[in-house]
Amino acid sequence: PKCIEAGQLVRKRSRAIKKFFKCNSCSLRTHVIGMPYPDHACTKCGKSAWVKCSMYHEKKGPKLENERLVLRAEDIVAQENFLNRRPVLELPVFCWIFVLIKIIVLLILFWVL
To answer: What H or E segment, with its residue span, contains residue 2?
Structure first.
């Protein structure tokens, strides 16, 4: 093509799927494009025990105090109270009447104009 002869940059695109794997013995991560599994051995330990994994790394290290899951009786009671609470839009009857009158007035004004 003329663009290659002119020295222009040519980018090729493919519709292949990128898959992520980690070594089952040493947890080294790798990826392959357009293949079902990696065709090479692990560069760290030399084994070919690949396991599918996520694209994102898992968090390692100590968990913070707010990251730990602790179920206490107070938390369970608080959650039940939150789930069983009354709806937020519970207004007295006269407020609903006022809202309905306002909507009717707006509809009449819209219809007249």
So the answer is: helix 2-5
